[in-house]
Amino acid sequence: MEFQIKYRSKESKARVGVLKTPHGEVETPVFMPVGTQGSVKAVCRKDLEEINVGIILANTYHLYLRPGHQVVRSLGGLHRFMNWPHPILTDSGGFQVYSLSKLRKVTEEGVVFQSHLDGSKHFLGPKESMEIQQALGADIIMAFDECVAYPAERTYVARSVELTANWARKCRELHQQDSQALFGIIQGGVYLDLRERSAKELVGLDFSGYAIGGLSVGEDQETRMEVIRFTMDFLPSHKPVYLMGMGSPEDLKQAVEAGVDMFDCVLPTRNARNGTLFTSKGRLTIKNARYIDDERPLDETCACYTCRNYSRAYLRHLFVAKELLAYRLNTIHNLYFYTRLMEKIREEIKAEAENLEK
Length: 358
What we know:
Number of strands: 18
Distance between the termini: 24 Å
Number of helices: 14
Strand order of the largest sheet: 4-15-14-13-12-11-7-6-5
Largest sheet: 9 strands, parallel
Shape: globular
């Protein structure tokens, strides 16, 4: 993977760059739709390509449990398995072990956990996480980490930072595929000195990029942004930075100004399935009775397939009737909104930035 910064803002730390991967180039800042089980829920490759999605995220934990990473490897890797010829990033699996496991035990070697599917016991550590991600064949893979809850005692978070650093070293040693870029994940909760410690330890390992993890787990927005801005000061300016699991439009804009390049979140797709749609005038709840005979599109400024072809009245009918088409049309719109939001952010940076290519 190569990362080139093309423009830097004169007003903030925002920048426009290009990620070059074996499966294509991606312009940053970029939002990555979440394809948890090798599928972005409710939409297909054609939908994503028409929306101009350049990269998606898939989930190590879920694909390990079902259908199994060895199955995916035997079928040609994740790109071929899901018919997605563009870049893919896989997470480490650490967050799902934290959030989904009925029972887990964290050790120096990794985590013993119970499957959320059938209660069966499994072990996931840096060795296993790397093995799974290498079998899946993503373009960007993540070092195994521990994500802690919020709030958490400082002593526990300090131990987690040490554990995450140790696991990151092991992942770095086990990294064998030159075709895959490996990112380290910064932890430390809301404790700024622990964030500094985590960042310095991982930067010392010289990863291809760095992720800020352990946020959007219950802390308020002001605290979250303080942690992000503080952590960015300790990360190398020539490498990509990925903010994990955070994705409201307001958060994206502020994080880009702080220098973040990559984002993922289930917010646009999950909200679409729940009937909450993003528009240029704010969020719209499509089930509301006021839309029963509304002939307007969701957003009159939007050029997505849904807005070009369907009325609010029809979309409300689909959603209230629980028709499956509602999920697809809503998801197309929300992902288009997010993709266009990032395009606008990049355009704004370019308009007021120093062109580094001159």
